């Protein structure tokens, strides 16, 4: 066995010892789906995620992430099964139930893997990438043999389904690659496409992120969620798993081997909590969690919509209090929710707010939603 083969075996063994059920190796090259990605961007399907378009040229080759890169190692880490929704009045995407930031966890987990390369190949360069660099991790994961692209655009593996994170380790050392995954195992199944509550799929393998609940609740920050998509959110306050939950390949989902990604029981049980806390309290409770991505305003906005979708009159008091929130985005969401609940008390609160409201957007929302329209 040559040096590249020995190093490749060491990398695979180390990755599995670290708790990664999947590890694959592929040469650094221009992603073969880059043209599709560019067309997707040009269609505007990325929405407010402008960083993708700003860095479009950097996606051309992994050498824009690590100079003289030769090899990309991709690992997958499964995350915990869902427990939200049993005692909570809202749902959170499974990946966030642990309340640990996967970026931080995976960066730490990959350090020993980088050390394996440095110890074996002194002078080698490495760079850990966890969802923040201009690298199409999903595409390189397929090239490394980890799975195929599902019609819901996610990577699927026969053994562990699709509930996993991807992380990459780039290096200028040469390793023996794994064969790419060239087949699809979705067949004629279209469950994921049909189950999407907001009809976010434009076709198989194509997602309009602007309609995706995960995008709306996480990436669409500092803006109201489009009114015509709010009812489709249901009780999803952060992220969405619907297109994965219905996938037959996820029937046998097992608990993660990484304790950091198991449910820690730290998620509040009532969506109202996000409307009751101020910026300082939010930062204390959620500053180091996935909820920090949309921030307090985003989570309070999402909470108001979830409570509105529940039409539970017991939520009206916290929503009425939310009419005094410093953010017009939160106030507007509370207006919509109260108009959905539509009790006498809720409508009286909206009438009172109409004369007090100073923001034009919120004032217009009060007039519009009080008329009985919710779209």
From TrEMBL:
Keywords: 4Fe-4S, Cytoplasm, Iron, Iron-sulfur, Metal-binding, Oxidoreductase, Queuosine biosynthesis, tRNA processing. Its EC number is 1.1.-.-. The keyword Transcription regulation does not apply. One of its GO terms (molecular function) is epoxyqueuosine reductase activity. GO terms for biological process: tRNA queuosine(34) biosynthetic process. InterPro entries: 4Fe4S_Fe-S-bd, 4Fe4S_Fe_S_CS, ARM-like, ARM-type_fold, PBS_lyase_HEAT, QueG, QueG_DUF1730. Residues 177-206 form the 4Fe-4S ferredoxin-type domain. PANTHER family: EPOXYQUEUOSINE REDUCTASE (PTHR30002:SF4). This is Epoxyqueuosine reductase. It comes from Thalassoglobus neptunius.
């Amino acid at each position: 066995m040559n040096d590249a083969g020995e190093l490749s075996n060491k990398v695979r063994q180390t990755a599995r010892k670290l708790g990664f059920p999947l590890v694959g190796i592929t040469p650094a090259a221009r992603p073969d789906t880059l043209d599709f990605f560019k067309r997707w961007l040009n269609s505007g399907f990325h929405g407010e995620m402008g960083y993708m378009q700003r860095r479009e040229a950097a996606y051309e080759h992994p050498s824009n992430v690590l100079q003289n890169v030769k090899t990309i190692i991709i690992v997958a880490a499964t995350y915990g099964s869902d427990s939200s929704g049993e005692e909570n009045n809202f749902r959170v995407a499974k990946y966030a139930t642990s309340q640990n930031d996967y970026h931080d966890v995976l960066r730490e987990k990959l350090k020993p893997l980088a050390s394996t390369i440095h110890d074996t190949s002194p002078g080698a360069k490495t760079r850990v990438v966890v969802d923040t660099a201009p690298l199409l991790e999903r595409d390189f994961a397929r090239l490394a043999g980890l799975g195929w692209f599902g019609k819901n655009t996610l990577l699927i593996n026969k053994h562990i389904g699709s509930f996993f994170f991807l992380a990459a380790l780039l290096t200028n050392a040469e390793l023996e690659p794994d064969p790419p995954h060239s087949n699809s195992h979705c067949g004629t199944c279209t469950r994921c496409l049909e189950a999407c509550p907001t009809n976010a799929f434009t076709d198989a393998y194509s997602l309009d992120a602007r309609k995706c609940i995960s995008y709306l609740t996480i990436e669409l920050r500092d803006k109201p969620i489009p009114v015509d998509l709010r009812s489709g959110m249901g009780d999803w306050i952060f992220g969405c798993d619907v297109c994965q939950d219905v996938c037959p390949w996820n029937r046998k989902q097992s608990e993660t081997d990484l304790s950091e990604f198991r449910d820690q029981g730290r998620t509040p049980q009532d969506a109202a909590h996000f409307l009751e806390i101020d910026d300082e309290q939010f930062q204390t409770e959620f500053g180091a969690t996935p909820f920090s991505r949309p921030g307090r305003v985003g989570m309070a906005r999402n909470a108001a919509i979830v409570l509105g979708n529940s039409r539970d009159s017991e939520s009206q008091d916290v929503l009425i209090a939310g009419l005094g929130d410093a953010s017009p985005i939160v106030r507007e969401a509370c207006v919509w929710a109260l108009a959905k609940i539509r009790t006498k008390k809720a409508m009286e609160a909206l009438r009172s707010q109409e004369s007090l409201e100073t923001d034009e957007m919120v004032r217009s929302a009060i007039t519009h939603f009080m008329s009985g329209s919710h779209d």
